[in-house]
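Consortium newsletter contribution from the modelling node. Members have asked for a concrete example of what our holo predictions look like. Here is one, prepared for the iron/sulfur cluster complex that several groups have been discussing at recent meetings.
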Amino acid sequence: MPFQLMAKPSGASCNLRCTYCFYTEKENLYGGSARYRMSPEILERYVRAYIRSQDTQVVQFDWQGGEPTLLGIDFFNAVVALQAKYADGREITNTFQTNGTLLTDDWCRFFRQNGFLVGLSIDGPRACHDRYRMRASRRPSFDAVMAGAARLRKHKVTFNTLTVVNDDNARRPLEVYRFLKKIGDGHMQFIPAVERLPDRAARELGLNLASPPSPENKTDTVRVTPWSVSPEQLADFYIRIFDTWVRRDVGRVFVQFFDVALGNWMGAGSGLCVFAPTCGRAGALEHNGDVYACDHYVYPRYKRGNIMHTPLAELMASDPQRRFGEAKKDLLPQYCRGCEVLPVCNGDCPKHRFAQTPDGEAGLSYLCRAYKAVFNHMAPCMTMMAELVQTGRPASDIMGALSSQGAIRRSSAPGRNTACPCGSGKKFKRCCGA
Ligand code: SF4
Ligand code: SF4
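And here is the predicted structure:
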């Protein structure tokens, strides 16, 4: 079975201390405070094993942290050399997720020369970004990230932006969207910040955030952190961006969430585990060779083993890992099974399933209300785009169709408080007439 790994060669080490980061505290699983660095032996074992485990012509490596630039360019020169040594005729690609604050001209030249696709973490304009993305000294990081973005552009490095949607920037969706359009090359990813205050299990491990719900413990007292995005905020954030995007930017701006939804609408499958029926095919590799079920499940009970002792492919194909992935579907509450948007949502990530259904069943996603609202709102446009693509036309043709519908609507002038003719179920003034 094909799988991916998010490699964390610097472990949880990072030069920033973003308030909502779920990964920096993982240093407590490895003795705390030290700077972590993958050894040359583990790196070579990983590169060789990962290439051999993939049955595709193109093999993609994903580098993350913590902050991987802390390892220096020489570490990644060694990566590229090892990839060339073991490629055996395969094409190798690399993605690299960074907070952007340490990017120099040398880093950007390296990315450009080696075709790395960079993911830049940025939460929106200065006030949004500096709300939670700060240095250990509590100083803001916005200027350093913007300098990094400017260098990436100067060296023509391809990069996506990655924005954590939290209680603060969720209030300013269009401000965030317009800002990201301006600074990047039009590829955006949004990740909702949802974490809970620590439970006993987490405290015993020295962690400050609750561990994910497990089959035996599906609902703790639901106390999310103050900076978590609420379902209502997330729905409003996505809907307002979608309504702008679908009228002006289809084919020019690529929002991962909308692309993934369209893929599911067309029956082409989800490119994102969160909205796929099952998961378990994207593990995490720590600096010392430990492999975990998922980037969000780096806890002792989800450790599958170590690549220095067990072949990587064997770890990712193990029974516990297979059961982990199947559980996403097997443990869906009845409420999801009867849901009108199940084929697109698939019950969200198991990490978020700590809420209860209206009739009291455990294991519902905390973000359910958001996804129900968003997917129902997008349905008429997604159906139209899916039909366009399936008849050989570009999805962007929807913009012309909507603007001519808009002209018709303007001439027939529906009342501002009447139901929107697009079928969203909202008032016209809050939907297409906004
Ligand atoms: S647990 Fe969530 S993030 Fe991890 S693989 Fe499954 S759906 Fe994806
Ligand atoms: S929208 Fe809610 S009920 Fe529907 S599949 Fe998603 S999580 Fe389940």
